[in-house]
Amino acid sequence: MAAQREMPVELAEWLETPAGRYVRAWEQRQVDAMVGNAFGYHAIQVGLPHWNLLQANRIPYKAWAHSPSAPYGTRAGRLVCEPEQLPFDTQSIDLMVMPHTLEWCADPHQVLREVERVLMPEGRVVLTGFNPYSLWGLRESLPGLELRLPVPVPSQVSPARLKDWFKLLSFEMDRGRFGCYAPLCATQLWLHRWRFMEHAGDRWWPAGGAVYAIAAVKRVSGVRLVGPAWRQARRRRVRRGAVSPVANRINEDGHG
């Protein structure tokens, strides 16, 4: 567990390497697209507070939370907490972004349970992570290679596992993308030479991208939108005998 708690610092340092900047650029584009139309009052990023993944969102209140063992960054609105115990009220957050957060937590399923607790109904969570079934993940199993990922394959959370956890909770998958198909290279020059792999991989082997970005929405069964009070009062004044069966069905469905 101690090694996992130190991982955010190692991950943050790796993200400044050529391969890390390649991953950051792709993830920034995907997350920007996934959070751009999310509305509400409170947005939280859990993990890597020096990296602003909320920049494309217009929610007024934003905060960046991270583990006490990774006290880096000087951004305003920073919170120190454990992801397994988020210091927010139940159903108080509209958007939560988690860059590689599940990969360094001691109990990633508990983290998702906390996310489900604090999110508002129809609230959105966006997660990124390494894909253990990519070429980068397969490369990690080969001995003798010096260039390594900051997150070991056993700690990586696959999209398939995420989907299973979503089913156990009240999340519904909204969208997801794989990316970064170039081989893991140590220099920007070689990453640039392999850039043709982006289009080829996305077309022929879409699930083989080195990283993924997934957005899910919290669904709450039985929740109905209630119209304005004046409209409800007007319905009560209408005599039952003057309302047609079709109108009755519309009213029962919450429309009209």
From TrEMBL:
Residues 79-127 form the Methyltransferase type domain. The lineage of its organism: Bacteria, Pseudomonadati, Pseudomonadota, Betaproteobacteria, Burkholderiales. This is Methyltransferase domain-containing protein. InterPro entries: Methyltransf_11, SAM-dependent_MTases_sf. GO terms for molecular function: methyltransferase activity. The keyword Transferase applies. One of its GO terms (biological process) is methylation. Keywords: Methyltransferase, Transferase.
